[in-house]
């Protein structure tokens, strides 16, 4: 697919951490994303008590919202600051523990146990560490992943899916030659080739 000048663009994990440190996070939605509300029934399909994964979760307010509805939420994010801000802003007590399988990684978990956020590279995760999921809310992850890593990312997401899982994905459409990203342009044809 033609993604213009973006195909070789790389944003490092350190650059993402710096965005959080500098407060350069216009991508964060204080009120949650309206498309999740609109398509919530597509994600949940009438089911309750789901395990829902938030790849590159940042401090998404929807994590608490879905946990309050009785779902179990797991997120992954390289910025420890974003995760700590999430717990502080949502007034949620949490505990922190190392993730033995991943060097330097931490898991921040709400004391109620229904929100577990992994501070590490998403590519260090596997189903043996985080389990499998019934639902995915990919609001800004695929469009933030470096274009050259999309296949690796999609393969990881597929490996984390339960048989009847729902994957809710938000992308952006624009001329990739006019904006270097992120968010990156991901054409529909590529989404189909990545996820089938």
Automatic annotation (TrEMBL):
S-adenosyl-L-methionine binds at residues 16-27, 56, 77, 121-122, 139. Its EC number is 2.1.1.67. PROSITE patterns: SAM_MT_TPMT. This is thiopurine S-methyltransferase. Belongs to the class I-like SAM-binding methyltransferase superfamily. TPMT family. Pfam families: TPMT. Gene3D superfamilies: Vaccinia Virus protein VP39 (3.40.50.150). The lineage of its organism: Eukaryota, Metazoa, Chordata, Craniata, Vertebrata. It catalyses: S-adenosyl-L-methionine + a thiopurine = S-adenosyl-L-homocysteine + a thiopurine S-methylether. GO terms for biological process: methylation. SUPFAM superfamilies: S-adenosyl-L-methionine-dependent methyltransferases. GO terms for molecular function: thiopurine S-methyltransferase activity. It comes from the Eukaryota. Keywords: Cytoplasm, Methyltransferase, S-adenosyl-L-methionine, Transferase. One of its GO terms (cellular component) is cytoplasm. It is found in: Cytoplasm. It is an enzyme of class 2 (transferase).
């Amino acid at each position: 697919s033609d993604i213009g000048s973006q195909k070789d663009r790389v944003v490092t994990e350190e650059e993402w951490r710096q965005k959080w440190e500098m407060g350069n996070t216009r991508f964060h939605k204080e009120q949650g994303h309206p498309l999740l509300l609109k398509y919530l029934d597509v994600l949940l399909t009438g089911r309750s008590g789901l395990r829902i994964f938030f790849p590159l979760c940042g401090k998404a307010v929807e994590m608490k919202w879905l946990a309050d509805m009785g779902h179990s939420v797991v997120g992954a994010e390289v910025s420890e600051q974003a995760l700590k801000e999430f717990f502080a802003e949502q007034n949620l007590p949490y505990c922190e523990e190392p993730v033995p399988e991943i060097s330097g990684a931490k898991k921040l978990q709400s004391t109620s146990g229904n929100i577990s956020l992994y501070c590490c590279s998403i590519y260090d995760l596997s189903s043996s560490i985080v389990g499998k999921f019934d639902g995915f809310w990919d609001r800004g992850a695929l469009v933030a992943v470096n274009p050259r890593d999309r296949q690796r990312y999609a393969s990881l997401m597929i490996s984390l899916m339960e048989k009847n899982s729902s994957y809710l994905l938000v992308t952006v459409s624009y001329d990739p030659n006019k904006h270097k990203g992120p968010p990156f342009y991901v054409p529909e044809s590529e989404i189909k080739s990545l996820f089938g």
